[in-house]
Amino acid sequence: MRLVIARCSVDYTGRLNAHLPLATRLLVHKNDGSLLVHSDGGSYKPLNWMSPPCSLTLEQPDEVDVEDGVIERWRVLHAKTGDALLVRIHEIIHDTAHELGVDPGLIKDGVEADLQRLLAEQVSVVGENLTLVRREYPTAIGPVDLLLRNDDGTGTVAIEVKRRGDIDGVEQLTRYLELLNRDPLLAPVTGVFAAQEIKPQARVLATDRGIRCLTLDYDEMKGVQSGAPRLF
C-alpha cells in the first residue's frame, strides 16, 4: 500500500463528473489497484475514489499543467466502465509504501452465533424451569436456533435468535412452530423471538401470533454491564 500526502487536484469523469480543487490530501493506492482520496476531516469516507478492477498510470504533465505547477499526473482507469480519475500533483509532502500482507478479515463480536451460544448457556434468561434440548434443532425446513423443554413436562419452547429482529424473522419462527407442533412428543410448542433489537412491526406481528418477544442484552450476557439506563 502506498500512502502519499500531496497538494493536488482531482477530476473524475465517467458516469458522473466531479472536481476537487487544489488542496493538501492523502492519496491511498492499494495493491488491488484502487485509489482513495482523503481529506483531514468531514468523514471517514474518501472524497473520491476508484474501485477495482482498475489500473494506475503515471503521465507526464502537458504544457498547461506545467505552467500551473503540476509535477505528476496519475490517471486511474476502471477496466469495465472506462471511468477515469485524474490526479494532478503539485507537491509531494510525504510518500511511503508498506506491505501489509494478507488480512484475516473482520471478526464481529455479538453476531447471531454468539447470541445463540450465550442464550443456550443461560436459558434462565428465557424463563424459569427450562432445560436446553439442543441448539440448531432440525426441522424439514431448516434448524430452529434453540429448543428448550419445560421441566414440568408441559411442552417445549422454540427460540429464533437474531441480532436485529424484523418481520422476516417472525415469519421464519412461525413456520418452525407449525412443523414442531405436529410432533406429539414436542407439542405444545411455544415460540420466543429473541434479538438485541426488535423492530416495532415485528413485535406487533409476533404478539398477534402468540410469540413472545425477548430483548437480549449482549454485554450483560457476557458478564459486562452495558451502562445503558433501564426502566425495568
TrEMBL record:
Domain Endonuclease NucS N-terminal PH-like: residue ranges: 2-104
Keyword Cytoplasm (UniProt): yes
GO molecular function ontology, one term from the record: endonuclease activity
EC number assigned by the record: 3.1.-.-
Key words, A-Z: Cytoplasm, DNA-binding, Endonuclease, Hydrolase, Nuclease
CDD domains noted in UniProt: NucS-like
Domain of life according to the entry: Bacteria
Catalytic EC class: hydrolase
Pfam family, one: NucS_C
Domain Endonuclease NucS C-terminal: start-end pairs: 111-231
Compartment annotation: Cytoplasm
Summary of the function given for this chain in its UniProt record: Cleaves both 3' and 5' ssDNA extremities of branched DNA structures.
Family assignment from sequence similarity: Belongs to the NucS endonuclease family.
Name under which the protein is recorded: Endonuclease NucS
